[in-house]
Amino acid sequence: MSATLLNQFNVADTLTFDAIEFVRFEHVIDVTDHPIEDGGDVSDHAQVRALPMTVRGIIAVTPIGVVTAVSPREAAVAWFERNQGNLITPIFPVRGTFADVLITRWVHEVNQLEQLVFDVGLKQVRLASPVAVPIPPRVPKADVQTGTGSEQDTGGQATESVGSPPVASVLGTAALGAAALF
Fold it and tell me: Are 56 and 39 in contact (CB under 8 A)?
């Protein structure tokens, strides 16, 4: 099984692994926890995170009898150096194609067969795009502009203290009786 990584804006800039050891997808959902007085937690929100992926891919040595100016291993390292920070599109034979993916990390080593083994961290991202939304200025209703209709003068605002209401009207008679017991 192999996989191909494409530069999303330059599809001619591709890297195809000779073999894939594994592809791992980690679906993450964040759930809120809020403690309540009785000691339990209440969850009221869940958010699906961007999809992280891990790929272990292998680039073999140049096949016997084939002479190239740059070895496939050197070309693979140069591809990763060139595409750090660029959006890529990984294509996996079983899971399909994923758009808007960034390389989060890449590590490589040479194994006993002189193959270059890459451990690549990828993350599918949600891109924010600038959008201009024209908001028209607020235009008051016709009756507010003319001072008629629903807009009515209800008199002036009180300028002096009106005093406190009697305690019985605030607490109620039953509350006063209960307060007298203590």
Answer: no
